[in-house]
Design a protein that fits this description.
209 residues; alpha/beta; Ribosomal Protein L4, Chain: A; 2 domains; six-stranded mixed beta sheet; 7 helices; 33% helix; elongated; rRNA binding; Large ribosomal subunit protein uL4; ribonucleoprotein
Length: 209
């Protein structure tokens, strides 16, 4: 697949790049995508949820009424979950939601996500971004030139670029990552995936293994 290379003003530079069919042209694997997205979202959970159970409630331990003869259900503790102010029965406890996926499956999921976006013509290749100073306005100008100011976008850079990252940090609809940080959820969650020329080699080397 060939794509034209645009400059930061959105104009065609006259150059084209060839996208690897092994990365951008495979048959998407829906189950691999599901598992990788599930793992990504699970890793975002803090798992610090907690409610007090019966043993953790402060209260009297005496038997609140006699066992028989009251005509109601027997009850042994005011801390029981059936009473107001008692502990919660089977409440949430702190836990780790993360789980393991093998590297080959994660690689397949990311190639599938990129292939879906490529097939839907949601990939854009631009020249390398480089700002002299971190300035949100500079990044907004790039978004407007590419007609992405009202859409969710993912920018993939070849290397660390603090100025570009800081310029985009305040924009909720745009995310900037390195080629090595691409994940399935981020690719599919974007309306457009903007790839810089220098990042293509990194993407191919990371996902073609």
């Amino acid at each position: 697949m060939e794509l034209a290379v645009l400059d930061i003003t959105g104009k065609d530079t006259g150059r084209k790049v060839e996208l690897s069919n092994d990365v951008f042209g495979i048959e998407p694997n829906d189950h691999a995508i599901y598992l990788d997205v599930k793992q990504y979202l699970a890793n975002q959970r803090q798992g610090t949820h907690k409610s007090k159970e019966r043993a953790e409630i402060t209260g009297s331990t005496r038997k609140i009424k006699k066992q028989k003869g009251t005509g109601t259900a027997r009850a042994g503790s005011i801390k029981s979950g059936v009473f107001r102010g008692g502990g919660r029965m089977f409440g949430p406890r702190p836990r780790n939601y993360s789980f393991k996926l093998n590297k080959n499956l994660k690689r397949l999921a990311r190639k599938s996500a990129l292939s879906i976006q490529a097939n839907d013509k949601n990939l854009v290749v631009i020249e390398d971004l480089n700002f002299e100073t971190p300035k949100t306005k500079n990044f907004v100008d790039v978004l407007k030139a590419l007609e992405l100011d009202t859409k969710k976008s993912l920018f993939v850079l070849g290397n660390d670029n603090a100025n570009v990252y800081l310029s985009s940090r305040n924009l909720k609809n745009s995310k900037v990552v390195k080629a090595s940080e691409i994940n399935t959820y981020g690719v599919l969650n974007a309306n457009k995936v903007v790839i810089t020329e220098s990042s293509l080699e990194g993407i191919n080397s990371n996902l073609s293994k």
